[in-house]
């Protein structure tokens, strides 16, 4: 594995050096091409700035047939013929000199050449198109029997160039063409190959040396390992003997540690709050759940009595009974209301156990399970079971229970009360005219008016549909009952301003008095219903007490 890592590292270094050598060769070719291009470009700029130069007409320098200039050819006073050399002609002259001197080929070219010989080859045409897209220069190695480096950069139109090329539609800064520089690459490639051979040889030597050193190191390591194995075998025998003598003690200690760790884990991770107090009832330890449930940090309660959580809902006798049970039985459990640090009340199921023995001081361990949400849900379910969902008044079942309680209390204390059955008149036309939603709104408002018409000690209920009932407790006389009934009739006769419009209804009330009209639930309900029937069959919008001939 180690040999493979070393070999891979050396190979990676070799590849990186090869790439650096290739990059160096590429940079040298680019530098050479860029230098030649800049030299030619400077020469062209000088020529253009002077509006061309005149040279004697010779066999090698004939007048340029592609140059359109009124003074292309002139004759000096002494009769010597001169011809103008423009930047393009000068570039070709320089190209001939460069090719003769070092074999470098310079080619002035354009995608729209004036001179056919300046037409680009395929490589130059692709480069010119890329220049028009914003590329600055191109350098590339062209392999073959005679490999060359080709460099090309764009020629951009300058102000001096417009003297000859304005009629061709060019603008300053536009790419006019380019100069390609073709340089023999054989010598540079030979230098590169020599460098690659040198780099490869150096890496081979380094690899060989490193592998040899590793081999020597592994051999010495192997000898040391064998010696250590012999020593380890001897020590293992001694350790085995000592281990056997300590195993029993370790097992016992491990069990004790495991039990303590388990107890600590249970204490720290329990969902229930746990409080540990001393024999005097002062807190010595609480778990994280205690802080989460009560809002008190451990530092705020240590050394204090749990009574800091008291809600004020339990009497002194309640706590005295709790401590008495702990002293007698060593345990107590039950529901307790407490108060959080924020002042919010909450109810818990509290279990307290007295722990003694083992030479340890007496401790009391209390677990608190927060059952507030459960109690709230129970109360919600109980409320839903015994209340009308529309008006939130007691329903028929709760009303019947309250009627039984009213009878028992009246019998025990020798008091009277009145049972009233209330039925709405003309309720169906409201539903037919305004819709059931409006009917529901009217029922809700009816419940509100009924609640305001009776006293706080009285009970109002919705028995179903448009039927309501009331228990008027502790009535002193029949006149007092009639006063309340008349108030209800008047309140429900007032117009109801609903979202859908104004509705008008009345009500009929049948009343039975305890104990005059019955001593039990069945008798009272029967007589109140009979009185209600009498009102409905006659006047409506009135009340009637059982046995009365007329309605109020």
User: How widely separated are the two ends?
Assistant: 111 Å
Query: Rg from C-alpha positions?
Result: 56 Å
* Main beta-sheet strand count, sense and barrel state: 5 strands, antiparallel
**Unreliable spans:** none
Q: What integer is the average pLDDT?
A: 85
**Strand elements, count:** 19
Share in β-strands? 15-25%
- Structural class of the secondary elements? alpha+beta
Q: Name the overall outline.
A: elongated
The percent of residues in helical segments reads 40-55%
The number of distinct structural domains comes to 3
In DSSP terms (H or I, runs of 4 or more residues), the helix count works out at 14
Order the strands across the largest sheet as they lie in space.
9-8-12-11-10
Main features:
single chain; alpha+beta; five-stranded antiparallel beta sheet; elongated; 552 residues; Beta-Lactamase; 14 helices; 19 strands; 51% helix; 3 domains; Alpha-Beta Plaits; five-stranded mixed beta sheet
Please describe what this structure looks like.
By secondary structure, the protein is of the alpha+beta class. The protein has three domains: 16-184, no CATH class; 273-376, PAS domain (Beta-Lactamase, 2-Layer Sandwich), CATH 3.30.450.20; 387-545, Reverse transcriptase/Diguanylate cyclase domain (Alpha-Beta Plaits, 2-Layer Sandwich), CATH 3.30.70. The protein has 14 helices and 19 strands. The protein has helices at residues 2-49, 87-102, 122-132, 162-165, 186-269, 288-294, 298-301, 316-329, 372-386, 396-413, 427-434, 436-453, 478-493, 521-537, and strands at residues 53-56, 73-75, 81-85, 105-109, 138-142, 148-156, 175-184, 273-278, 283-286, 331-339, 345-355, 363-370, 417-425, 459-464, 467-472, 496-498, 501-503, 506-514, 542-545. The strands form five sheets. It has a five-stranded antiparallel sheet with strand order 9-8-12-11-10. The protein has a five-stranded mixed sheet with strand order 14-15-13-18-19, with helices on both faces. The two termini are 111 Å apart.
């Amino acid at each position: 594995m180690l040999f493979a890592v070393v070999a891979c590292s050396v190979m990676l270094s070799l590849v990186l050096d090869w790439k650096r050598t290739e990059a160096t060769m590429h940079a040298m070719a680019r530098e050479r091409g860029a230098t030649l291009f800049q030299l030619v470009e400077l020469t062209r700029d000088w020529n253009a700035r002077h509006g061309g130069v005149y040279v004697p007409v010779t066999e090698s320098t004939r007048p340029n047939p592609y140059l359109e200039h009124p003074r292309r050819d002139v004759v000096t006073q002494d009769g010597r013929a001169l011809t103008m050399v423009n930047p393009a002609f000068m570039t070709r002259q320089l190209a001939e000199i460069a090719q003769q001197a070092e074999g470098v080929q310079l080619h002035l070219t354009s995608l729209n050449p004036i001179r056919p010989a300046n037409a680009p080859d395929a490589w130059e045409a692709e480069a010119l198109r890329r220049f028009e897209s914003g590329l600055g220069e191109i350098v590339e190695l062209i392999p073959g029997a005679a490999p060359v480096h080709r460099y090309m950069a764009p020629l951009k139109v300058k102000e001096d160039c417009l003297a000859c090329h304005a009629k061709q539609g060019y603008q300053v800064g536009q790419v006019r063409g380019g100069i390609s520089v073709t340089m023999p690459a054989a010598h540079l490639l030979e230098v590169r190959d020599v460098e690659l051979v040198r780099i490869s040889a150096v890496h081979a030597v380094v690899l060989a040396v490193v592998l040899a050193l590793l081999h020597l190191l592994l051999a010495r390591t192997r000898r040391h390992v064998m010696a250590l194995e012999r020593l380890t075998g001897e020590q293992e025998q001694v350790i085995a003997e000592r281990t056997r003598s300590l195993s029993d003690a370790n097992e016992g200690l491990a069990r004790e540690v495991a039990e303590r760790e388990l107890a600590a884990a249970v204490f720290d991770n329990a969902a229930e709050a746990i409080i540990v107090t001393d024999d005097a009832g002062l807190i010595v330890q609480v778990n994280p759940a205690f802080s989460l449930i009560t809002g008190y940090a451990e530092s705020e309660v240590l050394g204090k009595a749990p009574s800091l959580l008291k809600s004020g809902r339990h009497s002194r006798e309640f706590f005295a009974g709790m401590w008495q049970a702990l002293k007698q039985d060593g345990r107590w459990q039950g529901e307790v209301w407490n108060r959080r640090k924020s002042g919010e009340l909450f109810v818990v199921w509290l279990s307290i156990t007295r722990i003694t023995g083992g030479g340890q001081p007496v401790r009391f361990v209390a677990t608190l399970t927060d059952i507030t949400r459960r109690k709230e849900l129970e109360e919600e379910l109980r409320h839903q079971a015994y209340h009308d969902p529309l008006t939130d008044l007691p329903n028929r079942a709760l009303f019947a229970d309250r009627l039984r309680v009213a009878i028992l209390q009246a019998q025990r204390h020798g008091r009277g009360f009145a049972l009233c059955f209330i039925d709405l008149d003309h309720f169906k036309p409201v539903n037919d005219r305004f819709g059931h939603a409006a009917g529901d709104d009217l029922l809700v408002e009816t419940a509100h008016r009924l609640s305001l018409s009776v006293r706080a000690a009285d009970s109002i209920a919705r028995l179903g549909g448009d039927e309501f009932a009331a228990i008027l407790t502790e009535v002193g006389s029949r006149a007092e009952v009639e006063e309340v009934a008349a108030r209800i009739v008047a309140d429900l006769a007032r117009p109801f301003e609903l979202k859908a419009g104004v509705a008008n209804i009345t009500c009929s009330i049948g009343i039975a008095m305890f104990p005059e009209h019955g001593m039990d639930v069945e008798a009272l309900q029967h007589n109140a219903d009979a009185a209600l029937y009498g009102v409905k069959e006659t006047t409506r919008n009135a009340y009637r007490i059982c046995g009365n001939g007329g309605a109020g």
